[in-house]
Specification:
The protein is mostly helical and 189 residues long. It has one domain. Helix content is 92%, strand content 0%. Helix 1 runs antiparallel to helix 2 and helix 2 runs antiparallel to helix 3. The longest helix is centred in the middle third of the chain and has 61 residues.
Length: 189
C-alpha cells in the first residue's frame, strides 16, 4: 500500500489539528491553575490581615492561645480543599489528554490493520504462514496495549481513592487536634 500526496497531506493536517487541540487543553488547565492560585492568595492575604488584627487586639495569653487553636482547623480544611481542587484540575486534564491519545492510537491501529489487510491481499501464494504470523503479532500488540491501559485506569482509581482517604483523615486529625487544643486553652483559663 502506498500513500498518495493527498493522503499524506490529510494525515499531516490531522496531526496538526490534534497538536493544537492538545495545546488548547493544556492552556485551559494552566488557566485554571492560575485562577485557583490567585483565589488562594487573595483569601490568604485577607485572612492574614484579619488574624493579625485579632492577635494584636488579644488582651491576654489565653485569648491568644484560643485564637491560635481556632486557626488550625480552618487552615487544614482550606489546604484540603486546595488539594482537591488542584487534583480535580489535573485529573480533568489527564482525562482529556487520555481521550485524545486513545483516539489517536485507535486510529493508528486501524491504519496498521488496513495496511496488513492490504498486504495480505497482495501477498504471494504460499505466504499464508507469514501473513498469519503478522496478524497474530498485531493482535498480540493490541491486546497488550489494552491490558496496560486497563491497568493504568485501575491504578488511577486506586490513587484517587487513596488521595481521598488521606485527605479525609488529615482533616479529621486536625479537627481532633483543634478540639484538644481548645479544651487545653479552656482549662488553662
Amino acid at each position: 500500500m502506498t500513500f498518495t500526496p493527498e493522503q499524506f497531506a490529510a494525515a499531516q493536517k490531522a496531526n496538526v489539528e490534534t497538536l493544537f487541540g492538545l495545546t488548547g487543553k493544556v492552556f485551559e488547565s494552566v488557566e485554571k491553575l492560575v485562577e485557583l492560585n490567585l483565589q488562594v492568595v487573595r483569601s490568604s492575604l485577607a485572612e492574614v490581615a484579619e488574624t493579625t488584627y485579632a492577635a494584636l487586639s488579644a488582651k491576654d495569653a489565653q485569648e491568644l492561645l484560643a485564637l491560635q487553636a481556632g486557626l488550625l482547623q480552618p487552615v487544614a480544611e482550606k489546604a484540603s480543599a486546595y488539594s482537591r481542587a488542584l487534583y480535580d484540575i489535573l485529573a480533568g486534564s489527564n482525562a482529556e489528554l487520555t481521550k485524545v491519545a486513545e483516539a489517536t492510537l485507535a486510529d493508528g491501529q486501524q491504519k496498521v490493520l488496513a495496511l496488513v489487510d492490504s498486504a495480505v491481499k497482495n501477498a504471494p501464494a504460499g505466504s499464508e504462514n507469514a501473513v498469519a504470523l503478522v496478524k497474530s503479532a498485531v493482535a498480540a500488540a493490541n491486546n497488550a496495549f489494552e491490558s496496560v491501559q486497563k491497568a493504568a485506569k485501575q491504578a488511577t482509581e486506586v490513587a484517587e481513592a487513596n488521595f481521598a482517604a488521606v485527605t479525609n483523615s488529615a482533616v479529621s486529625a486536625t479537627k481532633a487536634a483543634t478540639a484538644t487544643a481548645a479544651k487545653a486553652a479552656k482549662r488553662a483559663a
